[in-house]
Structures are given as C-alpha cells and as structure tokens.
Amino acid sequence: MTERSLDHNQGNFAETKIVPVILSGGSGSRLWPVSRGSYPKQFWPLLTDKTLLQETALRGQNAGLSAPIVVCNAEHRFIIAEQLREAGIADARIVLEPVGRNSAPAIAAAAFLVAEQDPDAVLWIMAADAAITDANALRTALQSAVSAANAGRIVTFGMKPTKPETGYGYIERGDEIAGIPNVYSVAQFVEKPNAEKAQALVADGRYLWNSGMFVAQARTFLSETEAYEPQVYENVRRSVAERHTDMDFERLDAASFSAAPDISVDYAIAERTKLAAVVPGDFGWSDIGSWDALWELSPKDEDGNATYGDVFLDRAKNCYVRSDGIVATVAGVEDLIVVVTQDAVMVSHRDRAQDVKHMVARLTKAGRKEALTHNRNYRPWGFYEGLIQGDRFQVKRIVVDPNQKLSLQKHFHRAEHWVVVEGTAIVTRDDEKHMVRENESIYLPLGAVHRLENPGKIPLTLIEVQSGPYLGEDDIVRIEDVYSRS
C-alpha cells in the first residue's frame, strides 16, 4: 500500500511515500542527572506525559506517514520497543547499530533500507530528543520540504532565532528557489558561535538555527553519500546487505558498519553538497540541549518558576526545580536550576546550564557510576534498583513485567535471597521449579543455576538480598537467555 504524504504544490495528500527516520543516539549529558548514557533524555517525559521519543514518533503517525525507522544502539532496543508500543506505534522498524558511527552512517543505513523497496521515497530525518510545539506550522514547513526533496534537493529546517544562542549551529539563507515557495538555497553553514558572533548573526536577519532535521529522497541521499563519502556508502551498504533479524530488530553487520568513518551528516553531506536547501520555520523547535532550554519551554508560576515532582518553593524566582525522588525545597534564590534524582543532586545557575556536561566529564574521570548509569537500571524483562548497600551485602528491588523472565544464570561470588512482595514468581533452582507467592521467599546458594519468571498478568515485585565478597553485575554467567544477551 502506498502511504499518503504531504504535497505542497497540490496543497493536500498525494501518492508520495514519506518515511520518518528517527536517530536515537547520544547521552544528553547536558541534562544530567536525569539524562545519562544508560537512559538518555529521549526516554524521559520532560514536557508532557509522553517521552521525547514517543512525541517524535507520533509526529509522523499523526500526519498519516509511513511507519518510522528508528536507528539506535543495541543496549536501548527493548526500551525503544516498549515505548513505541505504549504510544500505539506497532510497525516501526528498529535498526541496531553495532557501534556508534555518528549520524551520516546511521542515516545511510536507513536510506539503503528504504531504497530496497522505493528509492524515490522521501526520508524525514530527525533526532529522537527534540521538542516541537506547533504541529500545524511544522506541517506547512514539511509540505515545502517534501516538494523540494521531490525536486532532488536535500532540505533542512532553519529555525527563526529568538535570541543569540551559542548552543546551535546556524544556516545562512540564500535566494529563494524558483518554483518552490518558502524554500531557499543554503549560502553557508556556520559552526556554533561565541556570544558576540551569535548576536551579529541574529541581528543580520539572514541566519537561522540549524535544527538538524533533513528531508530528502533515499536515492538522492545515497548518491550524495557515494560522491562525498564513498567509504561510508560502501561499508554501510554491506552492513545493510548482510544484516540479520534478531527478534523484532534488524542488526546491521558489525564488521562492515564498524569500518565506516565516524562522521556527522553535516560534515559528510550538508556542508559539501550543491543540493542543500533550507525551509525557514517557526514551529517552536528546541533540541532541549540544556536545563535552561527546558525552563523556557515549561509552564511557569507567577514568579517565573517551573517545577516538576515533589517540590516546595518560598520566595524563589525564575528557577527550574525538578525532583524525581525525595522532596526538594528551594527558598530565597533566583535563576537557579535544581534537579534531584534518587542518587544525585545538581545545582547550577541558569546562565551556566550548558556547563553541566563539564561536571559529567569530571565524574566520569573520577570513575563515578552516577555519570553514566541511574540507580534504576532497565532490562528487557523490567528493571531493578538498589536500595541499600553495605560491606558484603546489598538489597535491591526487582520488577519483572508480565510473561517475562530473566536469563538462566549462576554466580561465583554471591548468594541471593528473594522475597516476593507482589505477584507470583516461578523460580528455577538447579533441577527444581518453585512457585513463590506474595510474602513467600526462596534462597539461592552460591553457584546455584537459577532463573526468575513472571507467569502472571501483573508486574512481579520482589526484594533481593545479595551476600558475598563481590557483588558486581559482571558476576553473572548466562547459560540461556531469551533476549540474546551474552
């Protein structure tokens, strides 16, 4: 079936296929401590009750476009699949990168996949972690971009600046392209400027923020990739041709994809192609690249404060305060960002919001796990979180989703005691299987081969007490795993 798409010249839907391509990579370190490598910002509901990934995927579905292609790293695959399912998007293609190679190889992989069926299909390429507040204005801009893409252009969206922003790159708008209203040639791309240069660019009037979104036919993108980055083209082509299916995911061939250069689409194609075009837009776009940007997008009280979670304020002004854990109280301050999670607190002046990434770098250098991972760790079967840790013991809460099970495994350095507090568990212990119900427990001695399953229709919650000389997560020997983990 041919999907409907937007056609600018006719002003309605026409028989052109548009495929949203969602790039879900990066760690979002400037939104630490909420966003971390193990669970970055696109998986969090930062502005609405939906996550940024869900909001991004729903833009295409709400416009009647094709099912999206999501390109991501393998560790996030089950998180993405579950969030898309929750959003009602059942037919997405989730493509797994064996290693990160930046945006040009990721987009090329999606283009090769689409070109297998329809090389004239239009790709709408976007990051998974941006916000857009005006869907109607976006629709109008997309109409113009698709018209230009069908004419052989590689189109980006340039956002009309609202202030001298140093966190974005800029695009200098050239002349309007004949026959395609509201689409302009690109005079040049400008790197992220310092404050003085940003003021000059905004005052000039010809410069737009670079949104990082692109629209182009699959064949156009691939031909320009082959012309300017032949190593990207050839290695990604092989990785797609030699891909294999893993459950509901498509795994790119590791050897071929790893051989592709690590390069962004801006450096590889956008800044070199003669086909670049830009559509000026004003649809409330933000890459939410800092806590200050999130403050700007959030609803505020009469004193300019934006809050989320269990927060109490007293004589505070123009602050962003978020708590995902314990109660947070803020009094008598202005222009601060305060973010509280279960295992970290971050306080910054709003003017220094971009500098949070420097603190993440310091924590990483110091070997602090809080830099990259949360206290709650998500797995394909559910999640676990640490409650207490001491000398030779730790206590965790484990939640297993209905009809899911952990790997069959054993440990060399620890024993475990499981207490079920909600639901019913089937526990494999060596050659026996035990039904463990609420308020019942079971002991797993060191070296026992064991597995935990949830046969029920509600989440299974249990408390795990570990004891032993070494309690690291790498003390797991997987014997069998339905999720194909090593």
CATH superfamily heading of the largest domain:
Spore Coat Polysaccharide Biosynthesis Protein SpsA, Chain A
**Unreliable residue runs:** 1-13
Please identify the top-level CATH class of the largest domain.
Answer: Alpha Beta
CATH topology of the largest domain: Spore Coat Polysaccharide Biosynthesis Protein SpsA, Chain A
Shape: globular
Largest sheet data: 6 strands, antiparallel
Q: What is the count of distinct domains? A: 3
What is the end-to-end distance?
A: 39 Å
What structural class do you assign from the helix and strand content?
alpha+beta
Number of strands: 28
Give the fraction of residues assigned to helices: 10-25%
Question: Strand percentage, roughly?
Answer: 25-35%
- Note the total helix count: 11
Report on the architecture of this protein:
It is a single chain. With 486 residues, this protein is of the alpha+beta class. The chain folds into three domains: 5-281, Spore Coat Polysaccharide Biosynthesis Protein SpsA, Chain A (Alpha-Beta Complex); 291-369, no CATH class; 376-480, Sandwich (Jelly Rolls). Helices cover 23% and strands 34% of the residues. The protein has eleven helices and 28 strands. The strands form six sheets. Strands 18-19-20-27-22-25 form a six-stranded antiparallel β-sheet, with no helix packed on it. It has a five-stranded mixed β-barrel with strand order 7-10-8-9-13. A hairpin with a 2-residue loop joins strand 19 and strand 20 (393-400). It is globular and about 75 Å long. It starts with a strand and ends in a 6-residue tail after the last strand. Mean pLDDT is 93; it is low at 1-13.
